[in-house]
Amino acid sequence: MNLLKEEQRGIDWYDTIHAVAMSTPLVKQFTWIMPLVLQLPDQLITLISRQMSRIVHFNQGVEEQAKITIRKQASSAVPANEAMSPRSIFHSILFNPNISPDEQKPKRMAQEGFGVVGTGGETTGRIVTTAMFFLLEKKSDALERLKRELAETLSQPGAKIDLKTLERLPWLTAVIKETLRIAPVLTSRLPVVSPDKALRYRDWNIPPGVGHNFARSVGWKLIEISRQVAVSITLRDILLDPAIFEDPMEFKPERWLPENPELDRISRYYLPFSCGSRMCLGMKFA
């Protein structure tokens, strides 16, 4: 996208991603907002909310990319399972035989593309910014140690380091993990509903979410409503719990080094991306 080379384009991109992040709490609670906004004329959206206008234009661009990918694949003589390059999330959706045709329509594919690009921008940027703040705050200790570790790894100044090598650097890894602990990217819960089996947690028996109905009076009518029992955790309560992490508000990358005798214990509670089948997909990209 050449965002580093084209300053204004980079600024516009940041404003768009920031708009997505700022609107998320509202849209999550009122799920009808985005479907309604996407049906409005562009000029009207801009008059109502410039922030929302950025999001709509972004979504339209992603959908157009999905349509282009579909057209190219439809006109290609190469079978989908053999067409390996170029790869994108749209190719992955089209080439997967387990995905139904309804899930391979442009609007549905655009939702996946929007999610991947949108959630991978503001979150990653915020974590890098937070890490830089703490490193500069502890310049004589944390930052100098990181610079020494990177200098020892580089074959020469300015040389590139492959990802596998970076992942093996203990202090860099510790800095990243501590940043994610003290400022997790997920600021809301990821609820999950067990559809047909009761969940057991200590003395709690949580009923399944489907088939658990009750009657409610609405005006003069008696209607039946399905009650869904959602289960989730608040990540900040765990990652900043003083009973788990000593001095939880202090930036201490050393707690993630192998020589820490408490490493195995605290690693069990390291959940910046949540856990289970509803965990954040961005863990592999952060």
Q: What keyword list fits this structure?
A:
286 residues; mainly alpha; two-stranded antiparallel ribbon; 12 helices
In brief, what are we looking at here?
The chain has 286 residues and is mainly α. The protein has helices spanning 7-29, 33-37, 42-48, 50-75, 89-95, 106-119, 122-137, 139-153, 163-167, 170-182, 235-239, 263-267, and strands spanning 192-193, 199-201, 204-206, 213-218, 221-226, 230-231.
Mind explaining what this structure looks like?
The protein is mainly α and 286 residues long. It has 12 helices and 6 strands. A hairpin with a 2-residue loop joins strand 4 and strand 5. Helix 1 packs across helix 4, helix 3 runs antiparallel to helix 4 and helix 7 crosses helix 8. The radius of gyration is 23 Å and the shape is globular. The two termini are 19 Å apart. About 6% of the residues have low confidence.
**Within the largest sheet, what's the order of strands?**
1-6
Which descriptor suits the 3D outline?
A: globular
Q: What are the segments in which pLDDT stays under 50 over at least 5 consecutive residues?
A: 211-226
Instruction: Tell me the Rg in angstroms.
Output: 23 Å
Q: How many DSSP H or I helices? A: 12
Topology as a string of helices (H) and strands (E): HHHHHHHHHHEEEEEEHH
Percent range for β-strand residues: 5-15%
| Total number of strands | 6
| Multimerization state | single chain
Give the CA-CA distance, first to last residue. Answer: 19 Å
Largest sheet: 2 strands, antiparallel
Structural class: mainly alpha
Mean pLDDT: 81
- Fraction in helix: 40-55%
